[in-house]
């Protein structure tokens, strides 16, 4: 069996297998479960995106931005973050390090942070502050900086309707181009009929379905969901061959990396002639929209999507067909009126 890169494997004297993540410059990490299983790959992804050890500290100038960021990446505060949050903040801080790593962290003024923010787009600026504030809190706690220069900085509220919600025309176009039994149609169906995030869909496998119910533990929230398998999804699952522990695998037969999956799914959308706005996350929103149009309450929708607040559900269902729901409401009113007249006769 081939193992993922940086995985060391051996069997002990009692016949028990052991797998460890071993990469130069990174902490050694035990990988539980069977190789390539969702449990194994979740631990592997966490180790791969985890804190890099402070290699070459002799060449790192003490008190510099680079030294502070290097120390923060190895801190308990950073390691306690969810893997997805770690990846995003690591990318932001690494770019900041590349541009300003030689500067003294203790002397960064608020004016400098504002200068960095001024050329950023609203959401990029917001994400930058979300990454910088924990870094500076770490620096203050460790005595590397006297104060946090990001404190007091307020950004104008970024206005956005969020990710584009697929329309029924978009859905029909994708289905028309990618037939049942193909990998693109399987990925599409898993996203649309489970209403889950990309990362959670990529970890799904046949072992998660029992008695017609799909068990999901969300990576972002930790919520454990039991989702009945939609009849349309069942047809597609039955028609699509799967020899792996996850439904979706790369061309090399390995579980998808989230970024690689997004690139691959973008190509499938392009092949179907869909606009660039159509993304995997937009299908999660389309699923919530469909549930709203079917008359489901916000609590019922949240029971499937796993949203932690009803406000989030409301935001996701803004694209619900208002005209259709209005017709349904009027139809109920007419039915109730007819019932009253019959009762009076």
Keywords:
345 residues; mainly alpha; hpI Integrase, Chain A; three-stranded antiparallel sheet; 6 strands; 7% strand; globular
List the topology elements:
Elements: E1 7-11, E2 17-21, E3 29-30, H1 38-48, H2 65-73, H3 76-79, H4 83-100, H5 110-117, H6 122-141, H7 168-177, H8 183-194, H9 198-202, E4 209-210, E5 213-217, E6 224-228, H10 231-239, H11 258-271, H12 280-293, H13 298-305, H14 310-316, H15 322-344
Antiparallel strand pairs: 1-2, 2-3, 4-5, 5-6
Structure description:
The structure is a single chain. This protein is mostly helical and 345 residues long. The protein folds into two domains: 7-141, no CATH class; 168-326, hpI Integrase, Chain A (Orthogonal Bundle), CATH 1.10.443.10. The chain is 50% helix and 7% strand. The protein is built from 15 helices and six strands. It has helices at residues 38-48, 65-73, 76-79, 83-100, 110-117, 122-141, 168-177, 183-194, 198-202, 231-239, 258-271, 280-293, 298-305, 310-316, 322-344; strands at 7-11, 17-21, 29-30, 209-210, 213-217, 224-228. The longest helix is centred in the C-terminal third of the chain and has 23 residues, at 322-344. The radius of gyration is 25 Å and the shape is globular. The N and C termini lie far apart (78 Å). Mean pLDDT is 87; it is low at 54-58.
């Amino acid at each position: 069996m081939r193992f993922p890169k940086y995985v060391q494997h051996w069997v002990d004297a009692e016949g028990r297998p052991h797998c460890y993540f071993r990469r130069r410059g990174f902490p050694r990490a035990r990988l539980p479960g069977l190789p390539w299983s969702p449990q194994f790959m979740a631990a592997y992804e966490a180790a791969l995106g985890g804190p890099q050890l402070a290699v070459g500290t002799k060449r790192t100038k003490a008190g510099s931005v680079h030294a502070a960021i290097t120390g923060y990446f190895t801190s308990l505060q950073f390691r306690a973050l969810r893997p997805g949050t770690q990846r995003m903040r690591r990318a932001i801080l690494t770019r900041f390090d590349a541009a300003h790593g030689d500067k003294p962290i203790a002397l960064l003024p608020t004016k400098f942070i504002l200068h960095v923010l001024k050329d950023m787009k609203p959401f990029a600026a917001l994400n930058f502050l979300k990454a910088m504030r924990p870094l500076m809190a770490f620096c203050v706690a460790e005595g590397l900086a006297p104060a946090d220069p990001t404190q007091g900085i307020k950004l104008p509220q970024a206005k956005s309707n969020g990710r584009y919600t697929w329309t029924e025309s978009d859905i029909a176009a994708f289905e028309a181009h990618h037939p049942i039994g193909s990998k693109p149609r399987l990925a599409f169906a898993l996203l649309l009929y489970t209403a889950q995030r990309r990362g959670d869909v990529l970890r799904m496998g046949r072992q998660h379905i029992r008695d017609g119910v799909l068990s999901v533990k969300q990576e972002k929230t930790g919520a454990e969901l039991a989702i009945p398998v939609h009849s349309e999804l069942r047809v597609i699952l039955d028609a699509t061959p799967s020899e792996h522990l996850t439904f979706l695998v790369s061309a090399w037969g390995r579980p998808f990396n989230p970024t690689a999956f997004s690139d691959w799914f973008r190509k499938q959308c392009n092949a179907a002639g869909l606009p660039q706005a159509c993304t995997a996350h937009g299908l999660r929103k389309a699923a919530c929209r469909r549930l709203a149009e079917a008359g489901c309450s916000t609590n019922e929708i949240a029971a499937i999507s796993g949203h932690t607040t009803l406000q989030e559900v409301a935001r996701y269902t803004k694209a619900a067909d208002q005209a259709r729901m209005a017709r349904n409401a009027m139809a109920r009113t007419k039915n109730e009126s007819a019932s009253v007249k019959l009762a009076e006769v």
